[in-house]
Each structure stands twice: as structure tokens, then as C-alpha cells.
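Continuing from the previous page...

OK, I double-checked the sequence for GDP-mannose 4,6-dehydratase against my notes and this is the correct one:
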Amino acid sequence: MGKTALITGVTGQDGAYLAKYLLGRGYQVHGLKRRSSSFNTGRIEELYQDPHELDPQLILHYGDLTDSANLMSIIQQVQPDEIYNLAAQSHVAVSFEVPEYTANSDATGVLRLLEAIRILGLGRKTRFYQASTSELYGKVQEIPQRETTPFYPRSPYAVAKLYAYWITVNYREAYGIHASNGILFNHESPMRGETFVTRKVTRAAAAIKLGRQDRLYLGNLAARRDWGHARDYVQGMWAILQQEEPDDYVLATGETTSVRQFVEWAFADAGIDLRWEGEGIDEKGFCTASGRCRVEVDPRYFRPTEVDILVGDATKARRQLGWEPETSVRDLVREMVAADISALQRNPALKAAV
Ligand code: NDP
Ligand code: GDR
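Thanks. Re-ran it with the corrected sequence; updated C-alpha cells here:
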């Protein structure tokens, strides 16, 4: 008999990659999905199996991290060997607008899952993965950031994830639950949500190339991130839960890139030659040689508190898990731009995010 996994956030970017990976390893995968007025299962469409079929290996349950009774009942029914808690209000900028909801789902939601494992007496059976984040490092204390670097969260999202990180450690120490944190640096893909900066840029580069959009407005172009590919990172999540002892691991590429550089690469890959003409109220941003300005800075996208630079040191994961990211940031940009161009070509009605 293969193992059974429960993935919260299965409809998100990482949930889709992880579900595919676990199904490929012979798992039966249960996913938590939220009720929504329109379909929210687009990312897992290719994995979907008709529940009328005999023995489907991907099974979806309605649920929400803010509903304890619902979580308890699903976990009791599924009796998972492994829980991957990927569900979250995951947008840093949005967390300044919905801080209380973000705390409820991203912090207390984790407590609800751990309590369900404890109360149901599954502490010896069920292993728990918490989707922790490089946002915990926030205001720079050390470069590169590793497992021992002090945390200094800079957003309601990061503060909620700080609680989640520590409650995971506490339930491991207090109750002996096999509970681990993956402290993952930014990871992207063609399935990345459209309002995160990488996807916003690659979609816009594709749309501008195809004449469907005139310009793109962005916030802080100086921010630097350690960008990897989601496909590589879900393999690290799985490897973390296969260790005999639970522990916390950084997953990162070790390379940091500015948003500005990402923009230059994306537009170059779309075949648009851009020149940088400065940043600020009276300056123009990124323009083409013929003077058409394609990318402008709009202060509305600035955050009340920003994380300036992230770059991770994944030595521990390399040594203990044998984990190594395969895709470079440069290849990631190429893949995302190519996917967005072909998606727009296939669907003339698609609009790009501005
Ligand atoms: P996404 O935003 O793409 O996916 C988030 C998922 O969580 C979606 O399935 C969403 O459902 C679901 N969700 C949101 N709120 C709730 C809730 N209250 N109850 C149940 N489900 C909910 O995020 P990613 O896939 O990029 O990230 C996965 C996890 O990893 C998140 O926890 C994120 O914070 C964390 N993380 C991500 C990193 C990254 O670079 N991608 C880096 C480090 C950590 P719906 O589809 O209905 O919106
Ligand atoms: P981040 O990702 O905040 O790192 O969180 P995001 O892509 O939103 O921002 C990265 C950097 O780009 C700057 N930026 C912009 N960001 C957005 N979204 N839109 C813009 O127009 C824009 N212009 C500049 C931001 O200010 C920031 O510095 C992601 C999420 O996946 C989290 O859930 C996860 O925990 C972390 O990565 C690691």
C-alpha cells in the first residue's frame, strides 16, 4: 500500500506541483480546497480524476484553515501519513490590507492542524510539513540567510508565519510530533499567481510583445530575491518529511537578483529591447529605443515596510537531504516568458495584469 498525503493549499502553485510529484511516487493524495464562486482548480486540472472512477488517487475535500471542526473531521477521515500545510494568504502586500485574516489562516490555521493531529492521537503516525518562508528573515541580519540567522519579520504575513514556524517547533518538542519547517526562498513557475512580481512581469512582457498591453506598472525595482523553480522546491518538501528526525531546513538557490534585472531579462526573452531611463516622479522607467516607455514605477506598489534583499544558504539541505535546485533564475525567466506567450497566443481573450 502506498502512503497517503493531505495537502492543504492544493489549488495553489506549490500544491499543484507537489500533488503531481506525490502521485508520481505512488501516493494517494487528498487535497483541501476552498469553496469559491468560480472554478479554482485550474492548476490541478491535468491531475483531476473523476470521483466516480474506481480508486481515484487524487481526492479533494472542501475546507478552510479557519475552520477547526472541518480540519479535524478531514484528518480523522483521511488518517494521513503526511500533511503538507501549504495553504495560506500568501501575498505579502495584501497582508497589510487583511492582517487579521492573514493571522487567522497563516498563524492560527497551523495551530488548528497541529491540534487536530494531537487530539486525534495521530502524533506517532502523521508527519507534518509547514510552509515557512524566507520572509521570516525580513530586515537583514546576515547574508546569506541560513537556519541560524535571527528572524526579523517585516509584514503581517511574515509575523503570522513566525508564529507558524514556532508553533511547529513547539509541537515537535512538546508532543514528539514529526513536524518540520521548510524555510523556502521565493520559488516561481508558469503557475505562479498573477500578482506576484515575476509572473506579473512575464505576463506583461508577453502581452506587450503581442500588442495586447501598453505598459506595466511596478513598485520597488531595487528589491532583490533568491528566485528558484517551484518544481525543484516541492521535491525538497518531500525529502524533509522522509528524514528519520524532524528538523528545519532552508531551501534556496544562493543567487540573488533584483526586480529590475528580472524585468530586463523577461523583456529581452520576449524580444523587446528596453533601455533604463531612470526611476522617480519625472523620470521614465524602462523605454524602448523609439522612446515608448513600457515599464513605470508606481508608488502604490511600495510596501509600508520592505524586505530589501534575500539570499539563502541551503548547505544543510544539500548535505542532509541531498537536495539541489536544478533550474537557474535565468532559465526560470525564459520558461515563464515562453509559457505566457504561448498561453496568450492560445487564448486571445486573456488579459494581462497591470
Ligand atoms: P499560493 O498563493 O499559490 O497558494 C495558496 C493556497 O492556499 C491556495 O490553494 C489557496 O486557495 C489556499 N488558501 C488560502 N487561504 C486559505 C484558507 N484560509 N484555507 C484553506 N486554503 C487556503 O501560494 P504558493 O503555492 O506560492 O505557496 C504555498 C505556501 O508556501 C504558502 O503557505 C506560502 O505562504 C508559502 N511560501 C511560498 C513561497 C513561494 O515563493 N511561492 C516561499 C515560501 C513560502 P485558493 O486557490 O482557493 O486561493
Ligand atoms: P514576496 O513576492 O513579497 O517576496 O513574497 P512578490 O513577488 O510579491 O514581491 C517580490 C519583490 O518585488 C517587489 N515588487 C513587486 N511585487 C509585487 N507583488 N508587485 C509589484 O508590482 C512589484 N514591484 C516590485 C516587492 O516589493 C518585493 O520586494 C513571495 C510570496 O510567495 C510569499 O508567500 C513567500 O513567503 C515569499 O515570496 C518567500
